[in-house]
Write a structure and sequence with these properties.
Layout lengths: L11 E3 L2 E3 L6 E5 L6 E6 L3 H19 L3 H17 L1 H12 L3 H21 L6 E3 L6 E9 L3 E4 L7 H13 L3 E4 L6 H12 L7 E3 L4 H10 L5 E5 L2 H12 L4 E5 L4 E5 L5 H12 L10 E7 L3 H13 L19 H16 L3 E4 L14 E4 L16 E7 L2 H8 L4 E2 L1 E5 L3 H10 L4 E4 L14 E2 L2 E2 L4 H6 L2 E9 L1
Parallel strand pairs: 7-8, 7-10, 8-9, 10-11, 12-13, 12-18, 13-16, 15-16, 18-19
Antiparallel strand pairs: 1-2, 3-4, 5-6, 6-22, 11-21, 14-15, 17-20
Helix pairs in contact: 2-4, 2-5, 2-6, 3-4, 3-6, 4-5, 9-10
């Protein structure tokens, strides 16, 4: 058993100061690899939230009044501090989330990259001078930060989910109140320390915790809040969108998915199997863009099942702090129970489990990498996002059938396809209804690219210039001369 590094003491950040708040309530933070309590996360009281809102209002005035170049200096300094503390950040992330520390380090690299990218791109909030049809009049479209923003994130990427909201908001000139997940709070706290030590004005960033519905209702109802960004499930996203409608605030929703993977008869099977298995077991499958519905041409179906089964059997599962571990535990015991329910349903409906299909060990929330052959659309895991290390594979007889089944669900976040045919690739790029499609690639999430879905997977984007635009508004100035 590896020695456990020191976990982060969890406090909230309100008006430039770290505090346990005034509610007296707290939840334990559990290491999913051991089941041990490693920390305690405090809850914000209504008075704490009012203080955070007032501070965000003050912080917005201070932060938005700085030039974009001055904001870049602060954000780059925060990125420098994250770089210096990369190993500690990765270890904190692994302890609270479970993913292998090498994988956690890659997530921290993404956090640093997003911070630097938003710092640089924030200098390009261009307006425009519009040629006027009215004599002696100037029309000027001005881009400006929308105001204080509130953000709520899921537990599966304690670094990436947080920084997508914080860096884009700050890069656009907004102040941000963020409520990270209470299950994985330490990474956000460490990120907050870097921004505060880098010289971020008091109130420009607040970090709060508590009962999610209580926090969201309080922050969304405030006239101070001008922007909402949420990463999480479809039902919760719809609930928050309804609350936000009362004040007509700008909203970004990054909701669930159920990504199809289409493997054509002419695909490079070695590439398809390698990329699919690597990306599938990233974060133990607890990824909103994880490949989850494998639709494979019947001509290569058996070979693909054999290849995925072999890589799944070879996967080393264990405590993410151990050397060589490729996949860690699920985030909590409840997720193991969900996997067991999915697998039992698949078995009952005729699926073949070629490997896995069981929990591992008697300590922690480990579940074996699992391959399910002969999956059908009647099975629960082909309709409900599994969010776990499960690979359901179904044979198809044509590209037409692939497209039809890929578009069958109402969520459209990500999708993947493997083909060596340029004609097929072009057709898939036009007809598969997802917000992000990777063809012979799974690298669909970078700091400079838009990240978001269509239909019930949400609206708006994080990442790229679209992510900054979500925190800005346009005003028109008309000047008669």
């Amino acid at each position: 058993m590896p020695s456990q590094p020191a976990y982060t003491p969890i406090e909230m950040l309100i008006d430039g100061a770290w505090t346990r708040g005034t509610s007296g309530k707290a939840d334990p933070v559990i290491n999913p690899a051991t089941g041990e309590t490693i920390g305690e996360v405090p809850h914000a009281s209504p008075a704490d939230l009012d203080s955070a809102l007032a501070a965000a209002d003050k912080g917005f005035k201070a932060w938005s009044s700085k030039t974009p170049a001055a904001r870049q200096v602060v954000m780059n300094k925060a990125a420098d501090l994250m770089t210096e503390r990369r190993q500690h950040l990765a270890e904190v992330l692994t302890m609270e989330m479970g993913k292998p520390v090498v994988e956690a380090g890659t997530e921290i690299d993404f956090v640093i990259g997003v911070t630097r990218w938003c710092a640089e791109e924030g200098k390009r909030a261009y307006g425009r001078l519009i040629p006027a049809s009215v004599p002696n009049t100037r029309y000027i479209a001005v881009r400006e930060p929308v105001g204080p923003a509130c953000a709520f994130t899921a537990w599966n990427f304690p670094g990436s989910n947080v920084i997508r909201k914080v860096a884009h908001g700050l890069g656009a000139g907004c102040s941000v109140i963020i409520k990270p997940s209470e299950e994985t709070p330490g990474t956000a706290v460490e990120i907050g320390k870097c921004f505060l030590e880098a010289g971020l004005p008091e109130g420009a960033l607040q970090i709060v915790f508590g009962i999610p519905d209580d926090i969201s209702r309080h922050l969304i109802a405030s006239p101070i809040t001008k922007k909402l960004s949420f990463t999480g499930s479809v039902p919760v996203g719809k609930h928050l969108a309804k609350l936000a409608a009362d004040t007509m605030m700008r909203v970004t929703m990054e909701l669930g998915g159920h990504a199809p993977v289409m493997v054509t008869a002419d695909a490079d099977l070695e590439l398809a199997a390698k990329l699919s298995s690597t990306f599938k077991y990233r974060n133990a499958g607890q990824v909103c863009i994880s490949p989850t519905r494998f639709l494979v041409d019947r001509k290569v179906y058996a070979d693909f099942v054999d290849a995925i089964t072999a890589t799944s059997k070879a996967m080393k599962v264990g405590n993410g702090l151990e050397d060589g571990v490729q996949m860690g535990p699920l985030v909590a015991e409840r997720r193991v129970e969900v996997m067991e329910s999915f697998i039992q349903d698949a078995r009952d409906k005729g699926a073949t489990i070629t490997t896995g299909g069981e929990r591992l060990g008697n300590q922690g929330s480990f579940y074996a990498p699992t391959v399910i052959a002969d999956a059908t659309d009647e099975m629960a895991l082909m309709n409900d996002e599994p969010f776990g290390p499960v690979v359901p594979i179904s044979p198809v007889d044509s590209v037409d059938e692939m497209i039809h089944r890929a578009n069958r669900l109402t969520v459209g976040l990500a999708g993947y396809a493997f083909t060596t045919s340029g004609k097929t690739a072009e057709r898939l790029s036009h007809e598969v209804q997802v917000g992000m499609l990777g063809i012979n690639s799974t690298a669909i999430s970078l700091p400079e690219t838009p990240f978001g879905g269509i239909d019930e997977s949400g609206y708006g984007h994080e990442g790229g210039i679209e992510g900054l635009d979500a925190y800005q508004r346009t005003r028109l100035i008309v000047e008669a001369r």
